[in-house]
Amino acid sequence: MPHPEIYWETSFGFVLCAREGSAVIPIAAIGFEIRSNRLVVRQVQGVRGRKEHLRPLHWERLLYRVAISFGRILGIETVHVLPARQSDYYPLGNPEVGCALSRKESIARAQRMHIVYDKESVRCGFKWCEGTQTFMFALLS
Predict the structure, then answer these.
(1) CA pair distance 29, 116, nearest whole angstrom
(2) What's the start-to-end Cα distance of the chain, in Å?
């Protein structure tokens, strides 16, 4: 496993790295599945303890743009982002995750996930698609 700091939930993904001295360290990742003619983002994750590297970047937007560019290279028709509430790690919709956190921690995680998955994808041009219940970015017209 090349990056044990990242818990992969998907078959494919990209890792954003930074140089720290002579080492190259992972600081964030985006994970996705390719289904038919769609690329479906299921994971956008900063690496714990790497805030100093992430803080100056709009890293979520950067990773969404990487997924869009990769989709274009593959000739994919659409890129989709699952909304936060559809994540297995969304604490307000998953009692198993929620019980491991305090109410305050659950609310904070839910708010952060809402920003990362819902708000940032829209800022990158994704639109809500009722049919798929995802945020969608059309690549081919």
Answers:
(1) 12
(2) 38
Contacts of 37 (CB under 8 A, 6+ apart): 76, 77, 78
**What would the two tokens of residue 16 be?**
């954003």
The sheet with strand 12-20 has its strands ordered as 12-20, 23-35, 38-46, 78-81, 134-138, 127-129
Burial of 130 (0-12, 13-18, 19+ CB in 10 A): exposed
Q: What is the pTM of this model?
A: 0.90
What pLDDT, in 10s, does the model give residues 75-95?
999 999 999 999 888 888 777
Integer Cα distance of 101 and 21 in angstroms: 35
Quick one: average pLDDT of 25-30?
95
Domains of the chain as residue ranges with CATH: 12-138 (3.40.630)
Q: Which two tokens stand for residue 29?
A: 């990742």
Q: Are 135 and 128 in contact (CB under 8 A)?
A: yes
Helix (H, G, I), strand (E, B) or coil at 102: coil
